[in-house]
Amino acid sequence: MRVAVTGAAGRIGRVVHRGLGDRGHQVIAMDVARADDVQHVDVRDTAALVPLLRGCAGVVHLAANPNETSFEEALDSHLRLTHSVLEAMLADGVPRIVYASSNHAVGFTPRVPMVGADTRHRPDTFYGVGKAACEALCSLYADRHGLAAVCLRIGTFADRPRTRRDLSTWLSPGDAVRLVEASLTAPAVHFSVVYGISANARAWWDLGPARRLGYRPQDDAEAFAGPILATAETTDDRIQSRHVGGPFAVPATANDAEETAR
Questions:
Q1: pLDDT tens across 48-70, in order?
Q2: Number of folded domains in the chain?
Q3: pTM
Q4: Structural domain of residue 236, as residue ranges?
Q5: Is 141 a catalytic residue?
Q6: Active-site residue, selected from the candidate residues 99, 127, 141, 195
Q7: Beta-bridge partner residues of 152
């Protein structure tokens, strides 16, 4: 499969584009940042994207500012950038997008035994607002233009889990590649939202929709649980476990109270 990966020089992008290449896919890796194995492209430039996407069976759209920003920057980094990618896909007839959303699109959702992928948007930051808006934009292009779209609400992407929350939300590098490949190759996709985590024994986000796409995670954060659980639970641990978004899902009134206490 010929696949384009935006944001290919980023932390997840490097893992995904190289992993897809190792699995035999022809990968067009691109990023506004310069890297040896990545084409230098400003993804906001639709005209520049069109020739690069020609002949692709899908786009893995990872490009975005990964940090919390102002509202205006979030609008540019997420919504305008994703709109550019979708328009270039239409121009080239590229049939599928795999969009890197985030758990922060639903970050203020309280922790329950199993949070479904159909929970309403409850972003915890402007970053989360951008991700929620792009999920809606992908839905529009699926319904209006017939693009297949899979939005991945990615959890804690890291080489290994390091906190109690990570034991539930971790996504390993290997499983990240497996999830993206399943999202690219699953048959009969219209619009899907799935959580991006590994097969964690302590998971509280529903992996069912991702498994139905053919995702078969092979890693489990439980393999790293011993040293993490050997330390005493902290106040930060308890705060991080209250909502999907962890430490970002704290009401402003709580922040104000904390500042007053200081």
A1: 999 999 999 999 999 999 999 99
A2: 1
A3: 0.94
A4: 2-261
A5: no
A6: 127
A7: 100, 194
